[in-house]
Amino acid sequence: MPLMRYRAVLIGAALLTSHGGCGFSDNDLAKPRPSAEDAGAAPKAAPPSSAAAFATPGQAEPASQAGSTNSPPAVSSEAGKPPRAADLDSLSAEEIAVQPLASKPDEPLSPADRRARSVASLLKISQALEAYLAERDFFPSGSRRGNTPLLSWRVELLPALGYESLYKEFRRSEPWDSPHNKKLIPRIPAEFQSPERFDACTNYLAPAGRMTVLDGIEGVERGGFADGVRDTILVVEANDELATPWTRPNEWSFDETAPRRGLGALREGGFLAALGGGEVVLVPASLSDAEVRALFTIAGGEKIAAASITLDPLAEVPADPPTEDSPAVPQQAPPLAGADAEFSPVNLPSAVTPTDAPSASIRAGRAALPNQIDQEYARQVLSEVFKESYAAARTKEDRLAVAETMMGYVPSAGDDHAARFVLLDAVRKIAAANGEVKLARKACDRLAEEFEGDFTSGTIAAIKTLAGGAEKGERRELAEWAEDLMTAAYDEDRFLQAKEAHGVALSLARNAGDRELVRSLMMRQTEIETARREYSAVAGALDMLDKEPRHASSHLILGRYLCFIKGFWDKGLPYLAAGSDARLAAVAEQEVLIPPSTGQEQIALADAWWGLRDSYDAPFREAIEERAAHWYRLASAQLPDGLLRIKAEARLQEVE
Questions:
Q1: Helices and strands per DSSP (H, E), number in the chain
Q2: Nearest alpha-carbon partner for 599 in 555, 649, 556, 525
Q3: 208: which of 139, 251, 288, 652 fits an S-S bond (Cβ 3.0–4.6 Å)?
């Protein structure tokens, strides 16, 4: 299935005023901010010419000057101390020339809008850090003279964000507040600004302290993440009193005894953070100090997966997030409808909810979803037909008999899509409320087969309702149903829905005591999280390549997604070959430029892929290993008996 090209709305300009601890007043913000020059880094290899629709890339045009990339960098630390407002008192507004990024809105932004904008900025920062780590193998720590920090790691990250020319203007042998460097402070990239700010200070800080990414003056090497880079926080959104000029080498100071001090005042339900691997999460306020500490330490030895304790940063924050002791699956079914019930008798969400995005691939032959007017008319007509029989149904069996009758009338609706939709939706609700798994699934499957749209949330609602009164065997059946939903959503790049279905399937499998299914689902968890993280970076990479066709970090993002996540190697290899990961680029270029045809050539390419596998975490490791196995299989079929064939067959046995 080809990947649907989408474009996320990434808004970098802040629209609310809150200067926090940066030390500026409203009088400092009088004139329009000077625009920053920025350009993408020079290419290392000939990249694909366009990101459009993931077509097989061709030769690129020469790189050109681009506008703002909307990619935020990060900040370095000064002896691990939090910033103070008084530290800027020696610099006048004229010296720093801080200017507003935009005028105040007539109406304040909603908390949800501010959260979305902050997540967008952190996402850009995390993607740039992922590209930097892939290329350099260590976290950026900024420039220094001996042991004295001079400029923040945010400045060091500018090229990875596409601000190459701005980066070159800094004198990296001088401190951040030297006469030359302080003139560049107003040129803060929009990605570094919290949506509550209008100045040149940033709330996006890196943790500094023992066993964090900035443990001392050097950034940690990639191999130093013993707990796993994808389970470690690289950047936090700190409270306003800790905001610091973006070029200043100052960070959020990690305190093991109070691991969330200075965090959590800006967003409801917790604080935002960027993990390694390009993931942005909400760290919920409900976590224990031990769990929060585990997210910050790079080698604490804690066996905690970040995906299992953090939340989606844009999802509605639950009042009491589900825990292992209180699973998300309800324990009791909702009350059944009585004699006075209306035609839609069960209090379940509609089959298609407002949060359900259209599917990334629409199966041929499905009808468009009927509009609300047609649906309402169909409900009124069908209510006249079935209301009396449903009201007279006093038992569970009677109500299910009415649902079966409704299902029998679906073929009679013919091309009246509104009637078919309303009938199936009513059957789904009645069957779920009365504990009939097979009929509920039949109705849900028919809805998904016959109509365009994503029915995942409505189906999960039915599964949760059914789980309330399910026996042990039925819970396993429901878990397998949720697993099927998860797989379908994953295949169509709907990773939020896949994650939702996975959580329900895992909870049901545990309740059913099915250890084998639990183990299988736990393995899929990392796969879904990695795919979602990689996919979330795709839109930004596509936008960047529209402006800067040779942007190596964006080629790497697209190549990894197409090859390692989706398995589209023919389309993804040219992107990897033009990407910023030199090791991957070299092997991908070897495969693209000189496709191997003989057994000796094929085993040489297989060896090259095999040699990369230990340099990457799951599931990238498995994807690279399988690519090597692909070439070992082809080589084994051509090679004569001998050492090379023995080697190929031994490698295949190791994989299988």
A1: 22, 10
A2: 649
A3: 251
User: What tens digit of pLDDT does each residue of 165-177 get?
Assistant: 999 999 999 999 9
| 587/593 Cα distance (integer angstroms) | 10
**Burial tier of 391 (Cβ tally within 10 Å: 0-12, 13-18, 19+):** middle
- The answer to whether 564 and 619 have CB atoms below 8 angstroms apart is yes
Do the beta carbons of residue 296 and residue 259 sit within 8 Å? Answer: yes
How far apart (Å, rounded) are the C-alpha atoms in residues 36 and 164? 11
233-237 and 270-275 beta bridge pairing: antiparallel
Q: How confident is the model at residue 316 (pLDDT cuts 50, 70, 90)?
A: low
Helix, strand and coil content of the chain, in percent to the nearest 5, comes to 50, 5, 45
pLDDT digits (tens, 9 = 90+) for 261-286: 999 999 988 999 998 877 888 998 88
Beta strands in 252-392 (DSSP E): 252-253, 270-275, 279-284
Dist CA 94 CA 206 (whole Å): 29
Taking a C-beta distance cutoff of 8 angstroms, is the pair 467, 503 a contact? no
Q: Of the spans 36-50, 180-194, 376-390, 491-505, which averages the highest pLDDT?
A: 180-194
Residue 525 buriedness (CB in 10 A; 0-12 / 13-18 / 19+)? middle
Give the contacts of 77 (CB within 8 A, at least 6 positions apart): 149, 205, 206, 208, 214, 249, 250, 251, 253
Q: How far apart are CA 619 and CA 560, in angstroms?
A: 11
Residue type, 4: M
How far separated are the first and last CA of the chain, in Å rounded?
26
Contacts of 628 (CB under 8 A, 6+ apart): 606, 607, 609, 610, 613, 651, 655
Average pLDDT score, the chain: 75
Please state, in angstroms and rounded to a whole number, the distance separating the CA atoms of residues 82 and 80.
Answer: 7
Which tens digit of pLDDT belongs to each residue from 92-145? 333 333 333 444 455 677 888 888 889 888 988 988 888 887 777 777 877 777
Which backbone phi and psi does 208 adopt, to 5 degrees? -125, 125
> Which are the contacts of 230, defined by CB distance < 8 A and separation ≥ 6?
275, 276, 277, 279, 306, 529, 530, 533, 617
Does the reported pTM lie above 0.70? no
Residue among 275, 179, 278, 279 at smallest CA distance from 233: 275
- DSSP per position, 390-417: HHT--SHHHHHHHHHHHHHHTGGGTT-H
Q: Which of 118, 113, 253, 135 is nearest to 192 (CA)?
A: 118
* Element (DSSP H or E) covering residue 473: helix 472-491
**C-alpha–C-alpha distance, residues 224 and 218, integer Å:** 12
What is the pairing mode between strands 252-253 and 207-208?
Answer: parallel
Closest CA to 461 of 370, 359, 376, 347: 347
Q: Residue 574: how many CA atoms within 13 Å on its side-chain side?
A: 17
